[in-house]
Amino acid sequence: MKVTEAQEEVRAAYMNGAIGQLVSGGIWTASAVFGGAGAIRPAILVLVFGGMLIYPITQLVLRLIGWRGSLSPANPLRALAMQIAFTVPLTLPVAGGAALANVNWFYPACAVIVGAHYLPFVFLYGMWQYAVLGGALVSGGIACAFLLPHAFAPAGWFTGVVLVLYGAWMAALPRPRRDESSGPGRLP
Prior knowledge:
The protein is mainly alpha-helical. It contains 10 helices and no strands. The protein has one domain.
């Protein structure tokens, strides 16, 4: 399988990543609701534990709408997708350290971590649009940390809104459709 074919299968199997971004944006937004209400500990817990559920919820939604949401064993990008997924939980201690120094840096640190994690998606999906998403989250997280160091929720709201808007954008883009014989995509 050529790299371009593997990327096409990733786009087809995961709807350009649209559902994953919408699920992630929903979790960030739910967390920001708590954060905006001053419930900082629940806000952090919703984001951390909700973040652990992004992939399973995404898989559930994809299957409920008739999408496979998996790559063929022949796809060489399967391993890359799993490696990218583990970068966020492995770097969360950085956000924890930032929050210990200033709890208002929790969301900005998480936004930078999540944004940086999206940069390899440019290759995984073969879509330049992930550089836009990654850049927006990294720069937004940094801006919130420096411009609003005494406010907890803004970076949470920012990240949630960006992810939801990005998910809608990805859903609107054309994506390859694959039938039963050529690999994952829409179920017949």
